[in-house]
Design goal:
By secondary structure, this protein is an alpha+beta fold. It has ten helices and 19 strands. Helix 4 packs antiparallel against helix 6. The longest helix is centred in the middle third of the chain and has 36 residues.
Amino acid sequence: MAERSTAAVDVADNSGDEPLAAKADEATTDGTAEAQDTTGTKPQDTDGERISAEATLPTPDLHSGHKLAKRYRLEECVTRLDGFSSWRAVDEKLRRAVGVHLLPAGHPRARSVLAAARSSALLGDPRFVQVLDAVEEDDLVYVVHEWLPDATELTSLLASGPMDAHDAYQLVSQVTQAMAAAHREGLAHLRLTPGAVLRSSTGQYRIRGLAVNAALRGITADGPQRADTEAIGALLYAALTQRWPYETDAYGLPGLPKGVGLIAPDQVRAGVHRGLSELAMRALANDGATASRQEQPCTTPDELAKAIAAMPRIRPPEPAFTAPPEYQRTTYQQGTYGRPPTGPGSATQPVVTVPPAPLQSRTGKVLKWTVSALLIAALGLGSWQLAETLIDHRNDSGTEDTTQTTPENGDNKSEPTGQPLTIKNAAEYFPDGKAQHPEDVGLTYDGDSSTYWRSKSYIDGPNLAPFKQGVGILYELQSTQPVSTASIKLQFGGDHTTVSLYAADSLNSSAPLSSMKKIATTKTTGTEAKLQTEKSTETKFLLVWLTDMPNSPGDRYSDAGYKQGITDVKFTG
């Protein structure tokens, strides 16, 4: 998401809050504003929020350039409402951009904001924008979180039009799996709006404000799982139709016509994927099943995730073929060369007389054919004499003819080249939502054997199932190309490590393993795994997947247990 130079632009705020430009309107919003909602079950509320009496609390005099903890320098205020403010800041210690929420320590919601921030930080799931710090200091409570300048807010994506079926499927699949993992740890979002969902440059979705955004506004819910599930349904509905599924306009999207009620997305817009339309209705229709297939409603993210997994996988659309521009014939090819021009003023133009082309007579044609035949004969004779000379020379030298011949079956399929393939990017793969050490994946192909990515230690093994499906890393090559071998250095030897190689569609950390194609597998007791594909497979994304790991002693990084480390990953074509 590109940063903006003015504080009045909502997309520059990684907190998902209202921009300062909206402040003048906040005092006039109606009673449906989110600040008035204490149930958390009304995703139809607009982004407009009333300034409550809490906004009159004395607020410290903060300005651009102010430092918190002698480390976080405030740069730009992007939100100021309801007694708190949100800033874009710089972490001078680590030299990176961060976001900061600030509110007075005496604010009635200060304690709940701190508790929510610390709970969110403990989750440590990279599918959420991470909370980096939560502090009470100098009569201030502040929460520091990641700032993602290269991510794009879902609000901006939907402003350009509805999503195609594959993009909408990726959105609902990734967001649902992330929220299911959060609820399993007892965390809810309660403000899952288009402003809270970001798409990175690699196509992965990140959710910001888990628990914190709701705590800042005092939003609670009797059924948090149901509230978040309905919010996901609203996101999918908006992605399919570019409309908000309630009568109120919200997040830059028009609402549904008044009085018609909640109608299915495929009735709002032609060409909507039927399965995704029904999925949105199952998440939204909390009080009954959909009318089309009488499926039961989904009331928790886990139920919605199971419904998504039961759907046939939606593949990306085929790239559109662009026809080359039509060949334009010149006036010479159209036969107008040398003709008198027509139109106004043509009477004053001289008529050009073109002489006949040479050798167009009968004698000339005979002469041309004769010369051509003589040239062909001369070339044939010269080629035959050259071949005879080469054969005689080979026989005289006693060498054998090593000229390669084409197989009789005409199979000209390219053989593996053995050339190393460049790794462009990598991401940890964890479809169960529990990451290992995603920040270390770059160490597996940095050319330094002393650095490596490592898994956590497990009590049971060598096979990790059924407690964990496996651990692994997704790699992105420079382009789509044939892959024939993989070489992987392992940190621990022993009995035993099972490594498989899959062809994938993207760097999606939560894509189901069933959507990928296994192309090689091996088992080793040593510290190196070599995989050879049965036939060269063309792909741009590869998954290195470990399902069995050896029992290894503890070290300074991890305890004893079934674990493994990966380094020096190399692929060849």
